[in-house]
Amino acid sequence: MAPSSSAKQLIAVAGAAFLLATAVAFLLAAESGRPQPVHLRLYMHDVMRGPGTTAIHLIHGVGPPHDVEPGAYFGDTAAIDDVVTEEPNASARAVGPAQGTYMLASQHEEVLAVAVTVVLTAGPYSGSTFSMAGRVRVYDDKAEAAVVGGTGRLRRPAGYLTWRMVELVVSEGYVMVELDVHMSVPPVSAAGGNWWSSLLRSIN
């Protein structure tokens, strides 16, 4: 038996009401949601030689000799898979790797062009990543780079980090770098990104 016209109208009204409630919930969330601040202080451990090597040269000695850095050449490029810790100690608890590349980008200064992603495997943002890119003056007290992307709970970040070399052991090819990260992420990302649950909570 075909539904009556009044039943059809009731179904149409109920559907429209649901769509309206959904739209209102999302509009309210957009109006009230504020970016969530995220602050991380991490330490990256770069080892250029020995059994625990985490960085290797991809390009070395192709460009002209560097004006300031002995044994280095303009355009030298390294790939890294560095251990990242929460404390300034190589034996501290690891919270993930830092993976990417850096290149000696100036002929006259100790400047690196950096493109690195930190993969967090422990702590409150475990399973998330953030990516940095920029021009880093190696010996500056606090060089800045941009946070240009992220995944998981750190999706769509906006922010920056300071890059500071805190330890250098030339004989071991070891460098420890402090990453002081300041960024904000949309509230849905910070909450885990489950938009359907958020929608149901908003409607209820």
From TrEMBL:
GO biological process, one term: phenylpropanoid biosynthetic process
Keywords linked to the UniProt accession: Apoplast, Secreted
Membrane-spanning intervals of the chain: none
Cellular-component GO terms for this entry: apoplast
Alphabetical list of Gene3D superfamilies matching this protein: Allene oxide cyclase-like
Highest taxon above the source species: Eukaryota
Protein's cellular compartments: Secreted, Extracellular space, Apoplast
Keyword Acyltransferase: no
Keyword Transit peptide: no
UniProt cross-references to Pfam families, sorted A to Z: Dirigent
Protein family according to the UniProt entry: Belongs to the plant dirigent protein family.
Role of this protein: Dirigent proteins impart stereoselectivity on the phenoxy radical-coupling reaction, yielding optically active lignans from two molecules of coniferyl alcohol in the biosynthesis of lignans, flavonolignans, and alkaloids and thus plays a central role in plant secondary metabolism.
Subunit composition and interactions: Homodimer.
Protein name (record): Dirigent protein
